[in-house]
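hey can u check if this looks right to u? its 205 residues, i copy pasted from the old doc so theres a chance i mangled smth
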Amino acid sequence: MKDSYKQSLKWSFFISFVTLILSSGFTIASTAVLAGVNFAIGMLVVFFIIIIGVFFDMLGLAAASGEEKPYHAMAAERINGAKHAIQIVRNADKFSNFCNDVIGDIAGIVSGTATAGVVLSLVFEFGYGKDSFHYSFLAVLFTAIVAAMTVGGKAIGKTFAINNSMMIILKVGKFFYFIEKNFHITIFSGVKNGKRKVRGKNGIK
């Protein structure tokens, strides 16, 4: 129990630090891209951020709803990425935490902030002030549109993830395999929540 608590605590500190770095990077990048652009390009950037959030939310749910068994058969057939897919499913809590809570939430926050910036630039472009009715109306309108697109997109993504979790995780496993083979970076390693061999008096049970 103590070991699991320590692992959970270490992961919490690690993922909090990663969130701090990624959220800073997302905010700086989006601010730099949106600086001086017109309304149409600004909204395209916002929609792109929404797509990122929906995509990672789908990956997280696919991992959480996936099962190991199909990938064991694939691994036996030496299909690239199958072993990595097994590790993703075994570490579904961490994988979904990163995809849903880190990337998904950051994308939601950044898209909201970016929307406010785009609306503000549009209002100023037409010569209205931040305290005007036009700003309030457009801010509410576009915030509602972005929220609706985010929720609707995630609803579609969740349905797709549940119905195609095996294919999605295998694709991610192949991506992890590519990273490990070409850049020698291992995302997940070791065994977690898997079947362990127990050695008894007369050998392995």
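The helical segments are 2-34, 39-65, 69-76, 82-90, 92-125, 133-163, 165-183.
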